Amino acid sequence: MTDFFGLYDDDESNNNMDIFELVRDGRYNIGLPGKVNDEGAEQVANALIDPLTKARELNLCGGRIQLSGALALSKALILNQILKHLSLSMNQIGEEGAAVIAKALETNQTLTHLDLDHNEIGCTGAIAIAKGLEGNHTIQHLNLHGNRIGSDGASAIAKVLVTNQTVHHLYLGCNNIGPEGTVAIASVLETNQTMLLLCITSNGIGMEGAVAMGKALEKNLTLQCLHMNDNDNIGTEGAVAIARALETNHTLQELELYSNKIENKGDTAFATALEKNQTLLHLNLYENDIEQEGGMAIANALKVNQALKYLNLEENNIGDDVVEAFPKAVDMKPELFRQLCLPGNNHGL
């Protein structure tokens, strides 16, 4: 295995030629076997601007890249016109680093995947990224997970999505966007017809945010995957709004709602939705305080539903009798159903 000395904070040697050649020749696209620091990022940047570079994908996750490393990479992105995937996940570029990367997006027209999750970019960094997207027409996958961008950062991203029609996978989980940020994103989804996947897990979206998302699903015609896990304050009203949207929505295929405390009125609303919806393929209701009445309603809905392939009801309170009703409902259509998850419901399944 090649040793990439001089690139890491825990190595004092100085032999950067190997990584330069690997990146330039396009032989490195999985990830560096260590923690890349700013010096290493500068060597990567040099490889990206080499006239002979062939790099298409670059994974620099889990390193210690800060502002100077981000600046070097930003300058390289302005000149490089072949790199398509860049992951800087779990580094330390901060809001200033995000700003210089965003500046490169204004001119770079080849990068399609940008991963900046867990980089402490904050609200200011998110606003800068949004500005960079105003003139960008190639970024399709944008990951800002775990950056504490807040409601203002989410609102800035939402605003640019009104005109930007290329981003179709957006990850905003663990960002404390709250109800206000969620409402802003949901408002855009009512008219945006390019978004395919949206992740807003662990954001404290509240009942207001969930209701807004339900209204968006009633109008949106393209979203296929919605991840809203671990927003345990959406309440019954929020859950009902999402469920009712499924009655008329014909494009959503995957819905993740674990740990949201939807409770009985919410779960019966999902049962009603499943009776009418024939496009949802994947539904995760793990740990949602669902009890016997709601569980049985969902089991009965499966007898009618002809689309669902995956259902997760783990860690609820539906009880043994209801758990036993699910295999019977699924057995009626073995050619359709693929996975049923029921552990943690006072039963051995």
Brief write-up:
This protein is α/β, with parallel strands linked by helices and 349 residues long.
Named CATH topology: Leucine-rich repeat, LRR (right-handed beta-alpha superhelix)
The number of distinct β-strands equals 11
Low-confidence stretches: 1-17
- Overall mean pLDDT stands at 90
Provide an overview of this structure.
The chain is of the alpha/beta class and 349 residues long. The chain has one domain: Ribonuclease Inhibitor (Leucine-rich repeat, LRR (right-handed beta-alpha superhelix), Alpha-Beta Horseshoe), CATH 3.80.10.10. The protein has 12 helices and 11 strands. Strands 1-2-3-4-5-6-7-8-9-10-11 form an 11-stranded parallel β-sheet, covered by helices on one side. α5 packs parallel to α6, α6 packs parallel to α7 and α9 runs parallel beside α10. The relative contact order is 0.06.
Summarize the SSE layout with pairings.
Elements: H1 17-24, H2 38-49, E1 57-59, H3 67-79, E2 85-87, H4 94-105, E3 113-115, H5 122-134, E4 141-143, H6 150-160, E5 169-171, H7 178-189, E6 197-199, H8 206-219, E7 225-227, H9 235-248, E8 254-256, H10 263-276, E9 282-284, H11 292-304, E10 310-312, H12 319-331, E11 339-341
Parallel strand pairs: 1-2, 2-3, 3-4, 4-5, 5-6, 6-7, 7-8, 8-9, 9-10, 10-11
Throw out a few tags for this protein.
349 residues; alpha/beta; Leucine-rich repeat, LRR (right-handed beta-alpha superhelix); 11 strands; elongated
